[in-house]
Design goal:
CATH class: Alpha Beta
Strand content: 15-25%
CATH topology: Rossmann fold
Helix content: 25-40%
Number of domains: 1
CATH architecture: 3-Layer(aba) Sandwich
Structural class: alpha/beta
Radius of gyration: 20 Å
Number of helices: 11
Distance between the termini: 29 Å
Largest sheet: 9 strands, mixed
Bound molecules: S-adenosylmethionine
Number of strands: 11
Strand order of the largest sheet: 1-2-11-10-3-6-8-7-9
Order of helices and strands: EEHEHEEHEHEEHEHHEHEHHH
Shape: globular
CATH superfamily: Vaccinia Virus protein VP39
Length: 353
């Protein structure tokens, strides 16, 4: 499919790029791409960064591929299923944590001038790294608004002490993770400008309400990335469409503008934007993942068999009502997502990133 004629001439500049529908996918380092962007031009960012930094270096990816030691570890198999490697962030030493801090600080200071005032930035994280990552974004000048809690059973924590399993059978080293935090940030509104005026002038500053008119909530019942989606996009940190469509929808308060994902991976943000009818730009540095996104985005988008509108209102409505009623929330399953089998940990909720 070619580029929608309504799409503004947002450029891949001289980086390799391809289009699909309303989307632009760029093969570049996001720092380089961002520096080329005009100031005050980006309406919203929804992204899942490499928050351990090391895990997506060529060396670590090679070690992951060959099952060697490194930051990727294979979680213990407790149900007979072979599991995919997860990044082991406890392996970061003090120097590497400082590197993470510097990376996110530099990323924020590169991004900030390019955002429109009031633009929202959604950043996926995990419970172990969020304090470090979120404080770095704040130090870089973004305004912390809140966390969005994605309720999902992860494969993190819950383990007995290593080599002490027999001696301490009733102990676990960390709680078993049941959520994934997403930091919600905003470029500060111009001094003295109320939200109403920011919406008028820049089309930013607020979040879009759900399709049923209710407010967007900060707790989202979710699921591990379904096998059907993982078959389409074999990326270790693929996020489910059922989550991404809700986040992307809320990111543009007036439903106008462009959502940017500077760490596109296999393109789950871009596919979600297509599904809800938004324009988007994804940037990916790794050539294999850039190529993968080119194939995966149309297929992930095509999972919207009943259209994004039905999907979003039905999905949100049911999940939110269950939450409001205080009843237990089953993992979200709807016509978009055939949740078959156990996630092998490719999802960021389990795998990070
Ligand atoms: C955690 S993954 C995102 C996966 C995505 N959520 C998905 O559903 O496919 C982060 C991605 O950022 C890419 N990346 C890392 N550093 C980058 C940079 N400086 N510029 C662009 N992409 C980068 C990695 O190659 C990786 O694919």
């Amino acid at each position: 499919m070619g580029m929608d004629p309504a799409t503004p001439p947002f450029s891949g500049f001289d980086f390799p790029h391809r289009t699909y529908g309303r989307s632009l996918m760029v093969h570049a380092d996001c720092f380089h791409w961002l520096r080329r962007m005009p100031d005050n031009s980006i309406d919203a960012v929804v992204t899942d960064p490499p928050y351990g930094i090391r895990e997506y270096t060529a060396r670590e990816l090679e070690q992951r591929q060959w099952g060697r030691t490194g930051i990727w570890r294979v979680p213990p198999s407790f149900d007979g299923n072979k599991r995919a490697p997860l990044p082991r962030f406890t392996a970061l030493d003090a120097g590497e944590r400082q590197t993470v801090r510097q990376f996110f600080h530099e990323w924020t200071t590169t991004l900030l001038p390019k955002l429109k005032p009031g633009a929202h930035v959604f950043v996926a994280c995990n419970a172990f790294m969020s304090q470090l990552v979120f404080s770095s974004l704040m130090d870089g000048g973004l305004e912390f608004r809140t966390q969005i809690i994605r309720l999902v059973q992860t494969l993190r924590g819950g383990d007995r002490p290593k080599l002490g399993e027999q001696d301490f059978p009733d102990v676990c080293s960390l709680p078993r993770g049941g959520y994934e935090p997403w930091g919600l940030f905003r470029k500060p509104l111009p001094k003295g400008m109320p939200l109403r005026e920011c919406l008028q002038v820049h089309g930013t500053g607020g979040l879009r309400r759900r399709m049923d008119g209710k407010p967007f909530l900060d707790v989202i019942p979710s699921e591990r990335t379904p096998r059907r989606e993982r078959h389409v996009a074999n990326h270790p940190s693929l996020k489910p469409q059922s989550l991404m469509r809700q986040l992307v929808w809320s990111a543009l308060p007036l439903g106008e503008g462009i959502v940017v994902d500077p760490f596109m991976g296999s393109g789950s943000t871009i596919a979600a934007a297509e599904a809800v009818g938004y324009r988007s730009i994804g940037i990916e540095r790794h050539s294999d993942y850039y190529t993968l996104a080119g194939k995966a985005v149309p297929q992930l988008h095509a999972l919207a068999t009943h259209g994004a509108t039905d999907t979003l209102s039905g999905h949100n409505g049911q999940a939110q009502l269950e939450l409001e009623a205080g009843t237990s929330v089953e993992p979200v399953a709807h016509h978009l997502v055939v949740a078959t089998g156990v996630d092998a940990g490719c999802d960021g909720a389990a795998a990070g990133g």
